[in-house]
Amino acid sequence: MIVTSWIVRDLEYWSHRSGRPIGLETVEQHNLTLYEMGRVHTAHGYIQAVERLQQHARALLGWWESGHDLLLTPTMAEPPARLGDFAPTAEDPARGFTRSIPFAIFTSPFNISGQPAVSLPLSWSAAGLPIGVQLVAAYGREDVLVRVAAQLEEAVPWRGRRPPVSA
Q: CB–CB of 136/81 below 8 Å?
């Protein structure tokens, strides 16, 4: 609800600024689908969604206060997707959005809560692709992340590693 509401806001802002209507001539199908999804939300529903995110962020604060220094998670739930894997289809015009979920499922909670996090390429797949490990620290504890990341980079250097295909 929050994402699609922001898409409505942004597209309408740029439509107004540019004088161009919102439609397939000016917006990709994926974004147009999310725009249409967002247009049905109410202000009341949006505020409820924001409140739920704020409650979640406060619950995370309690976890850190119980004595944890770091949280370790994968960075993504699956290896990188192939080129074109996010393209919308007639059956699934929001495919780009729904397909992106495995790639943001572990990072988005901390982007939303504002907690410091870092992704480190600590492993490599059989295909030579980096596998990220995410470390998350408590609010304001970037110092812990930087110290641990530096120690991990020294122990498992990745500076000279390159996947077979990269930009």
A: no
At 66-110, the pLDDT tens digits run 899 999 999 999 988 888 898 888 888 888 888 999 999 999 988
Is 0.85 surpassed by the pTM of this model? no
In angstroms, the CA 121 to CA 159 distance is 10
Helix (H, G, I), strand (E, B) or coil at 58: helix
CB 161 within 8 A of CB 120: no
Sorted by sequence, the CB contacts under 8 Å of residue 74 that are 6+ apart come out as 106, 131, 132, 133, 134
Where do the domains of the chain lie?
66-155
CB distance 153 to 133 below 8 Å: no
